[in-house]
Specification:
Layout (H helix, E strand, L loop, with lengths): L1 H14 L4 H9 L3 H19 L2 E4 L1 E6 L25 H13 L4 E6 L7 H14 L4 E5 L5 H9 L4 E3 L7 H7 L6 H14 L2 E8 L6 H14 L3 E6 L16 H14 L9 H6 L3 H7 L4 E2 L25 H14 L3 E3 L9
Parallel strand pairs: 1-8, 1-9, 2-3, 3-4, 4-5, 5-6, 6-7
Helix pairs in contact: 1-3, 2-9, 3-10, 5-6, 6-8, 10-12
Bound molecules: 5'-deoxyadenosine and FE2/S2 (inorganic) cluster (FES).
Length: 350
């Protein structure tokens, strides 16, 4: 029934908490009408905290070399068709310099779990970026390390860390990852990051293989209780050279509905409208913002490596210059009444 689901949306707004069973009902109660109700509520809540401003983060894909073998991911170790690269410190700094001139005040260093990016190397790079661009935030998205290593990165000046939990259901986690990876370690990392003081981001793929309304309910419950400063969600998109090559992709509609729910639950959260969302629908990023997201993370990687960081098929913006994407996003946001701002875009505490 419509009205039951709408009541649940009202209930998250007022109590910021639902039971697992209620989250499941909320997911199963999806319809276009319910989603529009959720989006209107999410927009109103987002506008109250962040106005019509959209934060941008310059994403620098520093390496596609990865020791892991996640079944969904195009840069998994077993993919022999992946043309591997690793940026030098100088190349990373050059990307930041270009980004700075384009108005970026956050740089996100993302990569596979490349053993060459030891904690020592990561710290050196972070320190150099913070010295050259003291008014910028540095976000790391480099996978799993020990608590000691994360602490060193924080002490080197890193402000934020993104590590998607991928799924909050242990069995589901096991179906998406090789045996060597563990759900417990993933969670350990996230709690360590938060404890250290990072603005911490978790997240998951919408429509990943074996996902159910039950596993999604657990994702929402985890996001409710973990209360991350950021949350990255985007549709799963199959990659031709992975075991999931013939699995169905997630939809823009369900992704936007979940974005709205997360916004309603955590009014201040930093919520990106992802590149994957822009890949499943040409207007996906606009839809994400209209559903309550407030962050965009365009690519700042050097042109010659962009096609090599293919987590999934048909990724957008791999043929574009950073400056082009920056202009494009300005225009896209303007077209829906939002404005990209030059700002670190920190989490606003309540
Ligand atoms: N489709 C969509 N998202 C993906 N990611 C990895 N592979 C895919 C895919 N095939 C996401 C994961 C990871 C983030 C960097 O990209 O959630 O955490
Ligand atoms: Fe890259 Fe539009 S954002 S071309």
């Amino acid at each position: 029934m419509y009205s039951d689901t709408l009541n649940l949306l009202d209930k998250i707004e007022s109590s910021r908490s639902l039971s697992l069973e209620e989250y499941k009902e909320l997911i199963e109660g999806y319809s276009a009408h319910v989603a529009e109700y959720a989006a209107e509520k999410a927009r109103r809540i987002r506008n109250k905290v962040y106005g019509n401003k959209v934060f941008i983060r310059g994403l620098i894909e520093i390496s596609n070399i990865c020791r892991n073998d996640c079944l969904y991911c195009g840069i998994r170790r077993s993919n022999a068709n992946c043309d591997r690269y690793r940026l030098t410190k100088q190349q990373i700094i050059d990307c930041c310099r270009e980004g700075y001139s384009l108005g970026f005040r956050t740089f996100v260093l993302q990569g596979g779990e490349d053993p060459c990016f030891s904690v020592k190397t990561v710290c050196e790079i972070v320190k150099e970026i913070k010295t050259l661009f003291p008014d910028c935030a540095v976000t790391l998205s480099l996978g799993e390390y020990s608590k000691e290593d994360y602490s060193a990165m924080y002490d080197a000046g890193a402000d934020r860390y993104l590590l998607r939990h991928e799924t909050a259901d242990k069995d589901h986690y096991g179906k998406l990852h090789p045996e060597k990876m563990s759900f417990e370690n993933r969670m350990r990392c996230l709690y360590d990051l938060k404890d250290i003081g990072f603005q911490t981001g978790c997240g998951f793929m919408v429509g990943s293989p074996y996902q159910t309304s039950q596993t999604l309910a657990k994702d929402l419950k985890f996001i409710e209780t973990f209360a991350p400063e950021m949350c990255g969600i985007g549709p799963f998109i199959s990659h031709k050279d992975t075991p999931f090559h013939d699995k169905q992709s997630g939809t823009a509609e369900m992704t936007c509905y979940l974005l709205s729910i997360i916004r309603i639950m955590h009014p201040n959260i930093l919520l990106p409208s992802t590149t994957a969302l822009g890949t499943v629908d040409p207007l996906g990023r606009e839809l994400g913002i209209k559903a309550g997201a407030n962050v965009l993370m365009p690519n700042l990687s050097p042109g010659n490596v962009r096609k090599k960081y293919m987590l999934y098929d048909n990724k957008i913006c791999t043929g574009d210059e950073s400056a082009q994407c920056r202009k494009c996003l300005d225009a896209r946001m303007k077209s829906i009444g939002y404005e990209v701002v030059v700002d670190r875009g920190d989490f606003k505490k309540q």
